[in-house]
Protein backbone atom coordinates (compact mmCIF):
# COMPACT_ATOMS: atom_id res chain seq x y z
CA UNK A 1 0.00 0.00 0.00
CA UNK A 2 1.66 3.22 -1.15
CA UNK A 3 1.80 5.97 1.46
CA UNK A 4 2.78 9.54 0.58
CA UNK A 5 5.99 10.96 2.01
CA UNK A 6 5.37 11.90 5.62
CA UNK A 7 5.43 15.54 6.62
CA UNK A 8 6.49 17.05 9.93
CA UNK A 9 4.19 19.43 11.87
CA UNK A 10 4.95 23.16 11.91
CA UNK A 11 4.76 23.46 15.71
CA UNK A 12 5.76 21.43 18.74
CA UNK A 13 2.46 21.91 20.63
CA UNK A 14 -1.22 22.03 19.70
CA UNK A 15 -4.37 22.65 21.67
CA UNK A 16 -6.17 19.85 19.80
CA UNK A 17 -4.74 16.92 17.85
CA UNK A 18 -7.17 14.91 15.69
CA UNK A 19 -5.96 11.43 14.66
CA UNK A 20 -7.57 10.72 11.29
CA UNK A 21 -8.44 13.21 8.59
CA UNK A 22 -11.23 11.45 6.73
CA UNK A 23 -14.82 12.63 6.96
CA UNK A 24 -15.35 12.31 10.75
CA UNK A 25 -11.99 13.88 11.56
CA UNK A 26 -12.43 16.63 8.98
CA UNK A 27 -15.99 17.37 10.08
CA UNK A 28 -14.70 17.68 13.65
CA UNK A 29 -11.89 19.96 12.48
CA UNK A 30 -14.37 22.10 10.55
CA UNK A 31 -16.78 22.59 13.46
CA UNK A 32 -13.94 23.25 15.91
CA UNK A 33 -12.41 25.82 13.58
CA UNK A 34 -15.73 27.63 13.22
CA UNK A 35 -16.32 27.62 16.98
CA UNK A 36 -12.80 28.61 18.05
CA UNK A 37 -11.50 30.69 15.15
CA UNK A 38 -7.90 31.65 15.79
CA UNK A 39 -8.32 30.94 19.50
CA UNK A 40 -6.92 27.41 19.30
CA UNK A 41 -4.24 25.51 17.38
CA UNK A 42 -5.57 22.35 15.73
CA UNK A 43 -3.55 19.59 14.05
CA UNK A 44 -5.05 16.78 11.94
CA UNK A 45 -2.77 13.78 11.44
CA UNK A 46 -3.76 11.68 8.42
CA UNK A 47 -1.69 8.66 7.43
CA UNK A 48 -2.68 8.82 3.73
CA UNK A 49 -4.02 12.06 2.32
CA UNK A 50 -4.87 10.32 -0.96
CA UNK A 51 -7.64 8.63 1.08
CA UNK A 52 -7.35 5.69 -1.31
CA UNK A 53 -8.18 3.15 1.39
CA UNK A 54 -10.29 5.34 3.67
CA UNK A 55 -13.78 4.19 4.60
CA UNK A 56 -15.05 7.56 3.34
CA UNK A 57 -13.72 7.01 -0.19
CA UNK A 58 -14.80 3.36 -0.30
CA UNK A 59 -18.27 3.82 1.18
CA UNK A 60 -21.54 3.57 -0.73
CA UNK A 61 -22.24 7.22 0.22
CA UNK A 62 -25.87 6.96 1.30
CA UNK A 63 -28.04 8.53 3.98
CA UNK A 64 -31.33 7.38 5.46
CA UNK A 65 -33.75 8.25 8.23
CA UNK A 66 -35.06 4.70 8.62
CA UNK A 67 -33.64 3.89 12.04
CA UNK A 68 -35.21 2.44 15.18
CA UNK A 69 -33.63 4.96 17.57
CA UNK A 70 -34.85 8.57 17.62
CA UNK A 71 -31.34 9.98 17.98
CA UNK A 72 -30.16 8.23 14.80
CA UNK A 73 -33.13 9.68 12.92
CA UNK A 74 -32.29 13.18 14.17
CA UNK A 75 -28.61 12.75 13.31
CA UNK A 76 -29.59 11.91 9.72
CA UNK A 77 -31.99 14.84 9.53
CA UNK A 78 -29.15 17.18 10.39
CA UNK A 79 -27.01 15.39 7.82
CA UNK A 80 -29.65 16.04 5.16
CA UNK A 81 -29.71 19.71 6.14
CA UNK A 82 -25.94 19.91 5.69
CA UNK A 83 -25.99 18.01 2.38
CA UNK A 84 -28.68 20.27 0.91
CA UNK A 85 -26.86 23.46 1.89
CA UNK A 86 -23.31 22.18 1.54
CA UNK A 87 -22.28 24.15 -1.52
CA UNK A 88 -23.52 27.42 -0.05
CA UNK A 89 -21.92 26.66 3.34
CA UNK A 90 -18.56 25.87 1.75
CA UNK A 91 -18.58 28.71 -0.81
CA UNK A 92 -16.55 31.15 1.35
CA UNK A 93 -13.70 28.63 1.44
CA UNK A 94 -13.56 28.30 -2.36
CA UNK A 95 -12.89 31.91 -3.43
CA UNK A 96 -11.49 30.98 -6.85
CA UNK A 97 -13.54 27.89 -7.70
CA UNK A 98 -16.96 26.39 -7.23
CA UNK A 99 -17.57 24.68 -3.91
CA UNK A 100 -18.59 21.01 -4.15
CA UNK A 101 -22.18 20.19 -4.98
CA UNK A 102 -22.82 16.83 -3.32
CA UNK A 103 -25.21 15.72 -6.08
CA UNK A 104 -27.84 14.39 -3.69
CA UNK A 105 -29.91 11.66 -5.37
CA UNK A 106 -33.12 11.74 -3.35
CA UNK A 107 -34.43 8.32 -4.42
CA UNK A 108 -35.10 7.02 -0.90
CA UNK A 109 -34.59 3.65 0.73
CA UNK A 110 -36.97 0.72 0.39
CA UNK A 111 -36.72 -1.82 3.22
CA UNK A 112 -38.32 -5.12 2.26
CA UNK A 113 -40.22 -6.59 5.19
CA UNK A 114 -41.01 -10.23 5.95
CA UNK A 115 -44.59 -11.17 6.99
CA UNK A 116 -43.28 -11.81 10.52
CA UNK A 117 -41.64 -8.38 10.68
CA UNK A 118 -44.63 -6.25 9.70
CA UNK A 119 -45.59 -5.14 13.20
CA UNK A 120 -42.05 -4.06 14.09
CA UNK A 121 -41.66 -2.32 10.72
CA UNK A 122 -44.89 -0.39 11.23
CA UNK A 123 -43.72 0.70 14.68
CA UNK A 124 -40.45 1.98 13.23
CA UNK A 125 -42.34 3.88 10.53
CA UNK A 126 -44.59 5.48 13.15
CA UNK A 127 -41.54 6.50 15.19
CA UNK A 128 -39.80 7.97 12.15
CA UNK A 129 -42.90 9.88 11.05
CA UNK A 130 -43.39 11.25 14.58
CA UNK A 131 -39.91 12.79 14.23
CA UNK A 132 -40.70 14.38 10.87
CA UNK A 133 -39.46 11.68 8.51
CA UNK A 134 -41.42 10.89 5.35
CA UNK A 135 -41.37 7.10 5.67
CA UNK A 136 -44.47 5.19 4.59
CA UNK A 137 -45.37 1.52 5.03
CA UNK A 138 -46.67 -0.15 1.88
CA UNK A 139 -48.65 -3.38 1.83
CA UNK A 140 -47.53 -5.93 -0.81
CA UNK A 141 -50.19 -4.80 -3.29
CA UNK A 142 -49.28 -1.12 -2.96
CA UNK A 143 -45.59 -2.04 -3.09
CA UNK A 144 -46.09 -3.92 -6.36
CA UNK A 145 -48.13 -1.07 -7.80
CA UNK A 146 -45.44 1.50 -7.04
CA UNK A 147 -42.49 -0.74 -7.94
CA UNK A 148 -43.84 -3.22 -10.53
CA UNK A 149 -40.38 -4.74 -11.09
CA UNK A 150 -40.27 -6.00 -7.47
CA UNK A 151 -41.12 -9.58 -6.45
CA UNK A 152 -43.39 -9.18 -3.42
CA UNK A 153 -44.59 -12.81 -3.16
CA UNK A 154 -42.70 -13.51 0.07
CA UNK A 155 -42.99 -10.01 1.56
CA UNK A 156 -45.30 -8.64 4.23
CA UNK A 157 -44.72 -5.17 2.79
CA UNK A 158 -42.01 -2.56 2.76
CA UNK A 159 -41.07 0.75 4.34
CA UNK A 160 -40.13 3.45 1.87
CA UNK A 161 -38.49 6.77 2.58
CA UNK A 162 -40.29 8.88 0.02
CA UNK A 163 -38.18 11.98 0.70
CA UNK A 164 -34.89 13.05 2.31
CA UNK A 165 -33.10 9.74 1.80
CA UNK A 166 -30.71 8.70 -0.92
CA UNK A 167 -27.03 8.96 -1.85
CA UNK A 168 -24.47 11.67 -2.46
CA UNK A 169 -20.80 12.46 -3.17
CA UNK A 170 -18.75 11.20 -0.21
CA UNK A 171 -15.45 12.70 -1.33
CA UNK A 172 -17.16 16.01 -2.08
CA UNK A 173 -18.22 16.15 1.56
CA UNK A 174 -14.77 15.16 2.83
CA UNK A 175 -12.98 17.62 0.56
CA UNK A 176 -15.36 20.42 1.52
CA UNK A 177 -14.92 19.93 5.27
CA UNK A 178 -11.16 19.60 4.82
CA UNK A 179 -10.85 22.72 2.67
CA UNK A 180 -12.97 24.75 5.08
CA UNK A 181 -10.99 23.55 8.09
CA UNK A 182 -7.67 24.37 6.44
CA UNK A 183 -9.01 27.71 5.31
CA UNK A 184 -9.86 28.43 8.93
CA UNK A 185 -6.36 27.72 10.20
CA UNK A 186 -6.38 23.96 10.87
CA UNK A 187 -3.08 22.27 9.98
CA UNK A 188 -3.17 18.92 8.16
CA UNK A 189 -0.10 16.72 7.87
CA UNK A 190 0.61 13.40 6.16
CA UNK A 191 1.93 11.39 9.07
CA UNK A 192 1.07 8.53 11.40
CA UNK A 193 0.66 8.58 15.16
CA UNK A 194 2.88 5.85 16.62
CA UNK A 195 2.47 6.46 20.36
CA UNK A 196 0.70 8.59 22.95
CA UNK A 197 2.27 9.77 26.20
CA UNK A 198 -0.16 9.68 29.14
CA UNK A 199 0.68 11.43 32.42
CA UNK A 200 -1.68 11.84 35.37
CA UNK A 201 -4.57 10.43 33.32
CA UNK A 202 -4.11 12.88 30.45
CA UNK A 203 -2.62 12.56 26.99
CA UNK A 204 0.23 15.05 27.16
CA UNK A 205 1.90 14.40 23.81
CA UNK A 206 1.68 12.57 20.51
CA UNK A 207 4.60 10.80 18.83
CA UNK A 208 4.75 10.77 15.06
CA UNK A 209 6.27 8.40 12.52
CA UNK A 210 8.74 11.11 11.50
CA UNK A 211 10.15 11.16 15.04
CA UNK A 212 8.60 14.35 16.38
CA UNK A 213 6.80 14.54 19.70
CA UNK A 214 4.13 17.25 19.86
CA UNK A 215 2.41 18.39 23.03
CA UNK A 216 -1.35 17.96 23.04
CA UNK A 217 -4.17 19.63 24.97
CA UNK A 218 -7.00 17.39 23.70
CA UNK A 219 -6.69 14.20 21.65
CA UNK A 220 -9.52 13.21 19.27
CA UNK A 221 -9.57 9.63 18.04
CA UNK A 222 -11.14 9.78 14.56
CA UNK A 223 -9.06 6.94 13.16
CA UNK A 224 -11.94 4.99 11.60
CA UNK A 225 -11.23 1.25 11.39
CA UNK A 226 -7.92 1.83 13.21
CA UNK A 227 -9.69 3.31 16.23
CA UNK A 228 -8.65 0.50 18.58
CA UNK A 229 -5.01 0.94 17.58
CA UNK A 230 -5.13 4.56 18.72
CA UNK A 231 -7.09 3.77 21.88
CA UNK A 232 -4.51 1.12 22.84
CA UNK A 233 -1.76 3.74 22.66
CA UNK A 234 -3.42 5.39 25.67
CA UNK A 235 -3.95 2.06 27.45
CA UNK A 236 -7.65 2.06 26.49
CA UNK A 237 -9.88 -0.37 24.64
CA UNK A 238 -13.01 -0.15 22.52
CA UNK A 239 -14.81 -2.99 20.69
CA UNK A 240 -14.13 -1.52 17.24
CA UNK A 241 -12.47 -3.43 14.40
CA UNK A 242 -12.32 -3.32 10.59
CA UNK A 243 -14.92 -5.50 8.89
CA UNK A 244 -14.72 -6.00 5.14
CA UNK A 245 -17.52 -4.95 2.81
CA UNK A 246 -17.50 -5.78 -0.91
CA UNK A 247 -19.13 -3.42 -3.39
CA UNK A 248 -19.99 -4.32 -6.97
CA UNK A 249 -21.11 -2.11 -9.85
CA UNK A 250 -22.93 -4.06 -12.53
CA UNK A 251 -24.80 -3.61 -15.79
CA UNK A 252 -28.18 -5.22 -16.39
CA UNK A 253 -29.45 -6.32 -19.77
CA UNK A 254 -32.91 -5.21 -18.61
CA UNK A 255 -33.37 -1.64 -17.39
CA UNK A 256 -35.42 -0.86 -14.29
CA UNK A 257 -38.10 1.72 -15.15
CA UNK A 258 -38.91 4.71 -12.98
CA UNK A 259 -37.19 6.18 -9.97
CA UNK A 260 -35.57 3.20 -8.28
CA UNK A 261 -34.79 3.54 -4.55
CA UNK A 262 -32.00 1.84 -2.63
CA UNK A 263 -33.61 -1.57 -2.11
CA UNK A 264 -32.70 -3.47 1.07
CA UNK A 265 -33.63 -7.13 0.60
CA UNK A 266 -34.58 -9.58 3.36
CA UNK A 267 -31.21 -11.26 2.70
CA UNK A 268 -29.35 -8.07 3.63
CA UNK A 269 -28.33 -7.48 0.03
CA UNK A 270 -28.85 -3.91 -1.17
CA UNK A 271 -29.03 -2.53 -4.69
CA UNK A 272 -29.51 0.94 -6.14
CA UNK A 273 -29.03 2.67 -9.49
CA UNK A 274 -25.70 4.28 -10.26
CA UNK A 275 -26.29 6.22 -13.46
CA UNK A 276 -27.03 3.61 -16.13
CA UNK A 277 -25.49 0.94 -13.92
CA UNK A 278 -26.29 -0.45 -10.46
CA UNK A 279 -24.42 -0.66 -7.17
CA UNK A 280 -24.83 -3.63 -4.83
CA UNK A 281 -23.35 -5.21 -1.73
CA UNK A 282 -24.26 -7.31 1.29
CA UNK A 283 -23.07 -8.54 4.67
CA UNK A 284 -20.47 -11.09 3.57
CA UNK A 285 -20.45 -14.71 4.63
CA UNK A 286 -18.20 -15.41 7.61
CA UNK A 287 -18.29 -11.74 8.55
CA UNK A 288 -15.62 -10.99 11.13
CA UNK A 289 -12.70 -8.69 11.93
CA UNK A 290 -10.14 -8.23 9.16
CA UNK A 291 -6.53 -7.13 9.20
CA UNK A 292 -6.11 -3.38 8.93
CA UNK A 293 -4.42 -3.67 5.54
CA UNK A 294 -6.56 -6.48 4.13
CA UNK A 295 -8.47 -5.15 1.13
CA UNK A 296 -8.43 -8.39 -0.86
CA UNK A 297 -11.54 -8.78 -3.00
CA UNK A 298 -13.75 -11.88 -2.76
CA UNK A 299 -15.41 -11.92 -6.17
CA UNK A 300 -17.34 -15.10 -5.41
CA UNK A 301 -19.52 -13.12 -3.01
CA UNK A 302 -21.36 -11.69 -6.02
CA UNK A 303 -21.96 -14.94 -7.90
CA UNK A 304 -22.70 -17.12 -4.89
CA UNK A 305 -24.80 -14.82 -2.70
CA UNK A 306 -25.58 -11.38 -4.11
CA UNK A 307 -26.79 -12.26 -7.61
CA UNK A 308 -29.19 -14.99 -6.45
CA UNK A 309 -30.70 -12.56 -3.93
CA UNK A 310 -31.01 -9.82 -6.56
CA UNK A 311 -32.59 -12.15 -9.11
CA UNK A 312 -35.12 -13.38 -6.57
CA UNK A 313 -36.17 -9.89 -5.49
CA UNK A 314 -35.95 -8.22 -8.91
CA UNK A 315 -36.56 -10.86 -11.63
CA UNK A 316 -35.40 -8.45 -14.35
CA UNK A 317 -31.89 -8.91 -12.94
CA UNK A 318 -31.44 -12.22 -14.78
CA UNK A 319 -28.59 -11.06 -17.02
CA UNK A 320 -25.95 -9.06 -15.14
CA UNK A 321 -22.31 -8.23 -15.74
CA UNK A 322 -20.00 -6.82 -13.07
CA UNK A 323 -18.20 -3.72 -14.33
CA UNK A 324 -16.11 -2.84 -11.27
CA UNK A 325 -15.72 -3.80 -7.62
CA UNK A 326 -13.84 -2.81 -4.48
CA UNK A 327 -13.35 -3.70 -0.84
CA UNK A 328 -13.88 -1.20 1.97
CA UNK A 329 -13.77 -1.41 5.75
CA UNK A 330 -16.57 -0.73 8.21
CA UNK A 331 -15.28 0.56 11.56
CA UNK A 332 -17.54 -1.95 13.21
CA UNK A 333 -18.65 -1.50 16.81
CA UNK A 334 -19.10 -5.08 17.97
CA UNK A 335 -21.07 -4.01 21.05
CA UNK A 336 -24.09 -2.40 19.39
CA UNK A 337 -23.24 -1.03 15.90
CA UNK A 338 -23.59 2.57 17.14
CA UNK A 339 -20.93 5.26 17.39
CA UNK A 340 -18.83 5.95 20.48
CA UNK A 341 -18.71 9.71 21.04
CA UNK A 342 -17.32 11.44 24.11
CA UNK A 343 -14.40 11.77 26.51
CA UNK A 344 -12.96 8.80 28.35
CA UNK A 345 -13.93 9.13 32.05
CA UNK A 346 -10.39 8.44 33.28
CA UNK A 347 -8.07 9.65 30.51
CA UNK A 348 -9.98 12.86 30.61
CA UNK A 349 -8.75 14.59 27.45
CA UNK A 350 -9.08 11.53 25.18
CA UNK A 351 -12.10 12.00 22.92
CA UNK A 352 -13.71 9.13 21.02
CA UNK A 353 -15.39 9.60 17.64
CA UNK A 354 -15.46 5.97 16.54
CA UNK A 355 -17.39 2.82 15.76
CA UNK A 356 -20.10 4.07 13.40
CA UNK A 357 -20.44 0.68 11.72
CA UNK A 358 -21.06 1.89 8.18
CA UNK A 359 -22.97 5.03 9.21
CA UNK A 360 -19.95 7.30 9.69
CA UNK A 361 -20.29 9.26 6.48
CA UNK A 362 -23.98 10.11 6.91
CA UNK A 363 -23.50 10.82 10.62
CA UNK A 364 -20.29 12.84 10.26
CA UNK A 365 -21.88 16.32 10.16
CA UNK A 366 -23.70 15.78 13.46
CA UNK A 367 -20.84 13.87 15.08
CA UNK A 368 -18.25 16.49 14.19
CA UNK A 369 -20.49 19.20 15.61
CA UNK A 370 -21.13 17.16 18.78
CA UNK A 371 -17.41 16.52 19.38
CA UNK A 372 -16.75 20.23 18.92
CA UNK A 373 -19.45 21.09 21.46
CA UNK A 374 -18.01 18.72 24.04
CA UNK A 375 -14.53 20.18 23.61
CA UNK A 376 -15.59 23.83 23.52
CA UNK A 377 -18.53 23.83 25.96
CA UNK A 378 -18.08 20.63 27.95
CA UNK A 379 -21.59 19.47 27.01
CA UNK A 380 -23.77 18.82 23.99
CA UNK A 381 -25.46 22.02 22.82
CA UNK A 382 -27.67 20.85 19.95
CA UNK A 383 -28.33 17.12 19.54
CA UNK A 384 -27.88 15.18 22.77
CA UNK A 385 -25.63 12.26 21.83
CA UNK A 386 -25.35 11.03 25.42
CA UNK A 387 -26.47 7.50 24.43
CA UNK A 388 -23.25 7.28 22.36
CA UNK A 389 -20.94 8.02 25.29
CA UNK A 390 -18.06 5.68 26.05
CA UNK A 391 -19.35 4.73 29.49
CA UNK A 392 -21.74 2.13 28.05
CA UNK A 393 -18.77 0.09 26.77
CA UNK A 394 -17.22 -1.06 30.08
CA UNK A 395 -20.72 -1.57 31.49
CA UNK A 396 -21.54 -3.80 28.50
CA UNK A 397 -24.81 -1.94 27.99
CA UNK A 398 -25.56 -1.89 24.25
CA UNK A 399 -27.45 1.04 22.77
CA UNK A 400 -29.20 -1.12 20.21
CA UNK A 401 -30.10 -0.01 16.70
CA UNK A 402 -32.36 -2.54 14.97
CA UNK A 403 -32.03 -1.11 11.46
CA UNK A 404 -28.48 -2.13 10.67
CA UNK A 405 -27.37 -2.97 7.12
From TrEMBL:
Keyword Oxidoreductase included in the entry's annotation: yes
Gene3D superfamilies in the record: D-Amino Acid Oxidase, subunit A, domain 2, FAD/NAD(P)-binding domain
PANTHER family: FAD-DEPENDENT OXIDOREDUCTASE DOMAIN-CONTAINING PROTEIN 1, SARCOSINE DEHYDROGENASE-RELATED
Top-level taxonomy: Bacteria, Pseudomonadati, Pseudomonadota, Alphaproteobacteria, Hyphomicrobiales
Cited Pfam families: DAO (PF01266)
GO CC annotation terms, alphabetical: cytoplasm
Domain FAD dependent oxidoreductase: 15-374
Organism this protein belongs to: Mesorhizobium hawassense
UniProt GO BP: mitochondrial respiratory chain complex I assembly
MF terms in GO: oxidoreductase activity
This protein's name: FAD-dependent oxidoreductase
Record-annotated membrane-spanning stretches: none
Amino acid sequence: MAIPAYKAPSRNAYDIVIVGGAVVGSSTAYWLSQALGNGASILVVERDSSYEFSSTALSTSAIRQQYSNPINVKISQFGIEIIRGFQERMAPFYPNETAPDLGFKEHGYLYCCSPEGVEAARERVELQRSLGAHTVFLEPGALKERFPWLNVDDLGGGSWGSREEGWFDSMGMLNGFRQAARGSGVEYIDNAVTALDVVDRRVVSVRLATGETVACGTLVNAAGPRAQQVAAMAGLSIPVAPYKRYSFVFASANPIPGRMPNVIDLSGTFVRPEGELFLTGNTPQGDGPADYDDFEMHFEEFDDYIWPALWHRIPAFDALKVQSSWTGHYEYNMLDHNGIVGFHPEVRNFMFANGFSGHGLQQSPAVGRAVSELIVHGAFQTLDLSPFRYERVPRNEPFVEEAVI
